[in-house]
C-alpha cells in the first residue's frame, strides 16, 4: 500500500504526472544497489535527523533515489534544479506527491525562475548543501552572510563547482568545509567517463537522429568527460578530433589514437562539436566563421557558456527550431550552424542524463559525504576535503558485490611485505 504524505510547498509542472514518475524512479532504483543499501542503513540509523538540507541537482530519476535516501536518513530536505533544462517533470511531481519532498523545479524554467528557486532553497536555512555547479553556495556567500554560521558544510560533484570552490577558498570567503565528491575515484572514473560518454551521444542522437559513423567529431577537452565522449564517439565509427590546452592531456589523447589540434584548425573540419571543458567560449565567433554549412555544436559541460551563443546570435539573420532541442542559426554568410539544447547539457536537455548504474556510485558518495560532514561537525577546517579513501573503496566493494564480482585480499605475508623497507632483491 502506497504511503500518503501531506503535500509540501512546491513548484512543479503538474502533480498528475506523479504515477509515471514513480514507475521511472523505481526502474532507475533497480540499477542503484549501492545507494539502496545505504538508504536501508540510513532508515535504521537516521544519521541526518534534524538536519536541514538543500540539494541543487539535476532532477532526474537517479536524483530522486538520492532524495529518498536522504529523507530516510531523517533529513529535512528541499530539492531544486541545478539546470533549467534537466528537470524531469514527472519525477519532480512524484517526489512531492508520493514522498512528501519539497521540489522547486520545472523543465524549461527561465533564468528568473531558476534564480528565485535558489533563493527559496536558501530560505530553508540549510545546514548542509548538496551542490551541482556551486550556484547555491556562491549565492549564500554573496547574499546570505547571516546564514553562514548555520552551515555544517557542502558537497560538490562537478568539476565546475570544485573550480569555483577553490577560487572562493583562495579569496578567503569559503568559511566552512566542502566535500569534493567530484574527485572521488568511484565518481570521476565512472560517472564522468562512462556516464558522460554514453549519455552525451544519447542526447545528440535523440535530438538529431544523425549517423555518427564517418562523421568528424570534435571533442573539446580531454578530461574524464572528454575521454568518455571521445571513446564512445569512436566506438560508433566517428573520426574523432580532440582539442586541448593541457599538454599532458593532449599527449594522452594522441597516444589513445585521436587526432589533436587547436580549435582554429578543427573548426573547418568538424561535422559535430562537443564541448566538455568547464570553461567559457571554447567555441566562439572566429570558429563559427569557418565551420561547414550545417555543422552541429553542443555542450556537455556544466554551464551554457562553453559555446559563445551571443556571438553566434549576432551573426545570424534567422534562428528557427527544426527539431526538439535543435535550433538552426542561419548566418549572414549563407551557411547555417545547428545548436543542440540551447548550449546547455545536451545529455540532460535532450535525453535522460547518465545511466542509473553510474549515478549509483556518485550519489552513494553524496549520501555518505553528508553523513561524514555531520559526524565530523566542528572538526573539519574550512576548505575542500576529499571523500575519505576508505569510503571510496567501500562504495567500490559494494558495487562489485552487487554485480556478483569478488576480488582477492592481501595475505598477511603480502601486507608485511608492502609495509616493510627491509625486504627487497
From TrEMBL:
Q: Which SUPFAM superfamilies match?
A: Formate/glycerate dehydrogenase catalytic domain-like, NAD(P)-binding Rossmann-fold domains
Asked whether the keyword Cytoplasm is assigned, the reply is yes
Q: How does the cofactor attach, per the note? A: Binds 1 NAD(+) per subunit.
Per the record, the major location class is cytoplasm
In which pathway is this protein known to take part? Amino-acid biosynthesis; L-homocysteine biosynthesis; L-homocysteine from S-adenosyl-L-homocysteine: step 1/1
Query: Which Gene Ontology terms of cellular component type are present?
Result: cytosol
| Record field: catalytic activity | S-adenosyl-L-homocysteine + H2O = L-homocysteine + adenosine
- What cofactor does this one take? NAD(+)
Q: Which SMART domains match?
A: AdoHcyase, AdoHcyase_NAD
Q: What is its EC number?
A: 3.13.2.1
Any one Gene Ontology molecular-function term assigned to this protein's record: adenosylhomocysteinase activity
Mind listing the UniProt keywords for this protein, alphabetically? Cytoplasm, Hydrolase, NAD, One-carbon metabolism
Q: Where in the cell is it found?
A: Cytoplasm
User: In this protein, which residues make up the domain named S-adenosyl-L-homocysteine hydrolase NAD binding?
Assistant: 192-353
What are the binding positions for NAD(+) in this chain?
158-160, 192, 221-228, 244, 279, 300-302, 347, 354
Q: Which GO terms describe its biological process?
A: L-homocysteine biosynthetic process; one-carbon metabolic process; S-adenosylmethionine cycle
Q: What does this protein do?
A: May play a key role in the regulation of the intracellular concentration of adenosylhomocysteine.
Query: What's this protein's family per the entry?
Result: Belongs to the adenosylhomocysteinase family.
Q: What is this protein called?
A: Adenosylhomocysteinase
UniProt organism field = Aerosakkonema funiforme FACHB-1375
Q: Which gene encodes it?
A: ahcY
